[in-house]
Amino acid sequence: MDFHALSKKYEKEYLEKVIELLKIPSVFEEDRKYPYGKPIHDALEKMLSIGKEDGFITKNVDGHGGHIEFGYGDEVIGVLGHLDVVPAGAGWTTPPFDPVIRDGKLYARGAQDDKGPVMAAYIAMKILKEQGFQPKKKIRLILGTDEERDWKGIDYYFKNETMPSLGFTPDASFPVIHAEKGLLDSYMTYPVPENDGETKVISVKGGDRLNMVPDEAVAWVESHLNVEEIFNDYLAQHKLEGSVKAADGRFEVKMKGKAVHASKPQEGRNAITELLRFLQSLPLDGEYELFIQKVYQAFETTDGKGLNVKQMDDVSGPLTSNLGSIAMDEHTCKLGFNLRYPVSADYGVIDQNLKELAANNKGTYEVYDHLASIHLEKDHPFVKTLLSVYNKVTDEEAAAKTMGGATYARALEAGVAFGALFEDSPDTAHQKDEHVRISDMMKAIQIYSESLYELTR
């Protein structure tokens, strides 16, 4: 089969189908009737109806997920995607749920994450089916509904349906992501020492998502000093951005940073740590100043050194840490942070070190969420097959990669992330004006159809 020519032939159908899916604002809503709200239910029903109309076997698993399938045999090759999206947010050039094509790009919330890639995988299946190919294994496109929140949908699905022997998710990037770091979201809470000095920090607040480097943090400072002048001089000296204003003898000190995903915190600028660094330049009371210093030092670098968990391995690289939130008043300081640890790391040791760090500083440690790392060896036949097809289509000699993010590959007993972004693709997931290049989706269709052919012939 000429998969390149076939993918081009299906471009019009791809766009028609994916645009209909993208019109549905499938953001989570509380609902007594539908597990994740009616819009997500509608997206699931729409995708299943598309599959049914095209002659595939479809199944809705109690509204928690579903699948579209064809092929024979007991073994199942899974393709896991999701139909839920994050809230649109403000600032879009065109309405986020009114898909438009501009300059060869498809704009809409979910175009990249993950409805566009899901539809690319579906069209790949349809190409094989309409070419008369009869897979010797079942090819099952599994449709998730709660990926952007708690993964309850995919958990429910696999409690009721067969686990694929192997699978991939089109929710990351090419060539093949064969390992994903462990993910840990945690909180440390400390008592704040009294501050009897003439300059007092009344409160510090910043960040609300542990998986993002915070781009803003605010402190209220009480002082007889001209904090406005001190802060502006500090900003100029350190080439930072921020603002300060006086109100009733107090100063609102606002530090700006650069937000990036917590999987690459070194590429951003953490507004919280920058603000803590500034606060140390003020004449604070000795014990209080030491407390601010300790908090800063714990997160001064993004390699976990200050938390006593620094490590790396050859497979997935270094551990990364991100101070994602702070809520501090005159009595309590609560710190929320995200760690992404190497696949060879001992989670038990990391957990123990963090507990000891908190206890040694009279604080408490709480795990909010933990996802263990996953790792499929580079020389696994499944990885080698996917990589071979990718390199053939792109005329590259790429190797399998690792990442710090979390995909549905973790829901599989043996799985990887496989596309649908390419190295030069714009990464616009979760951002305003989210989009995909249509040419990227056509190439992804070619790669997915040939990969599924090789895996099941």
Automatic annotation (TrEMBL):
Cofactor(s), names only, from the UniProt record: Zn(2+)
One annotated GO biological process: L-arginine biosynthetic process
Keywords assigned: Dipeptidase, Hydrolase, Metal-binding, Metalloprotease, Protease, Zinc
The Peptidase M20 dimerisation domain, residue ranges: 251-306
Domain of life of the source: Bacteria
InterPro entries the record matches: ArgE/DapE_CS, Bact_exopeptidase_dim_dom, M20A_pepV-rel, Peptidase_M20, Peptidase_M20_dimer, Peptidase_M20A
Keyword Transmembrane on entry: no
Pfam families: M20_dimer (PF07687), Peptidase_M20 (PF01546)
PROSITE patterns xrefs: ARGE_DAPE_CPG2_1 (PS00758)
GO MF term list: acetylornithine deacetylase activity; dipeptidase activity; metallopeptidase activity; zinc ion binding
Keyword 4Fe-4S set for record: no
Similarity comment: Belongs to the peptidase M20A family.
Protein name according to UniProt: Dipeptidase PepV
Organism: Halobacillus litoralis
